Amino acid sequence: MSYKKVSDKAMSCFDEGYNCAESMIAAFNDSYDNIDIDIALATPFGAGLGARRDLCGMLIAGTMLIGHLHGRIDPNDMERKTDSYKMAGAYYRWFKERFGAVMCRDIVPGKFTGHTEVCENILKEAATYLAETVVEPTE
Predict the structure, then answer these.
(1) Do residues 115 and 14 make contact, with C-beta atoms less than 8 angstroms apart?
(2) How many domains does the chain have?
(3) How confident is residue 3, by pLDDT bands cut at 50, 70 and 90?
(4) Would you say the pTM of this structure is higher than 0.90?
(5) DSSP alpha helix (H) spans, 100-116
(6) Res 6 pLDDT > 90
(7) How far apart are CA 80 and CA 84, in angstroms?
(8) Range of the domain at 83
(9) Cα(first)–Cα(last) distance of the chain, in Å?
């Protein structure tokens, strides 16, 4: 799978009118046979958690993807729980270091008017990171 394909699909979804979180989920659904997350679950996370400009929707959607692929179903499966927490923590740290913040209002300061160039760049980079490290890790 080409990581660029996932990134391009995420941008295509964003351009079609999906919010940032929906675009992330839709791109992975479309790009991988083993991923089928209901896009509607991501709707309230756009524009920073319910359009409150709080936690970035792309950070939340990526964490949903981690849970979908690596989360546990059995409450006694501590290995999957631990692995999932580690991956989510690594994604959070990467995201904060790469973009300087995790809050929508800090990433896109000032009046928020929806899709921005900043959001587009984050979407492309975050989709690539997730494809490389969560969906198709080389280890």
Answers:
(1) yes
(2) 1
(3) confident
(4) yes
(5) 104-107
(6) yes
(7) 6
(8) 3-135
(9) 16
**3-class secondary structure for 12-68?**
HHHHHCCCHHHHHHHHHHHHCCCCCCCHHHHHHHCCCCCCCCCECHHHHHHHHHHHH
How does DSSP assign 87-104, residue by residue? HHHHHHHHHHHHHS-SBH
From residue 35, give the alpha-carbon distance in Å to each of 49, 102, 124: 23, 25, 18
pLDDT digits (tens, 9 = 90+) for 94-137: 999 999 999 999 999 888 777 678 999 999 999 999 999 999 87
Distance CA 12, CA 48 (A): 20
Distance (Å, whole) CA 61 – CA 137: 18
Phi then psi dihedrals of residue 37, to 5 deg? -105, 135
Name the residue type at position 45: F
- Report the DSSP beta bridge partners of residue 103: 55
What 8-state DSSP symbol labels residue 111?
-
Look at the chain and count its residues: 139
3-state secondary structure of 71: coil
Tell me the one-letter amino acid at 107: I
| pLDDT for 116 | 77
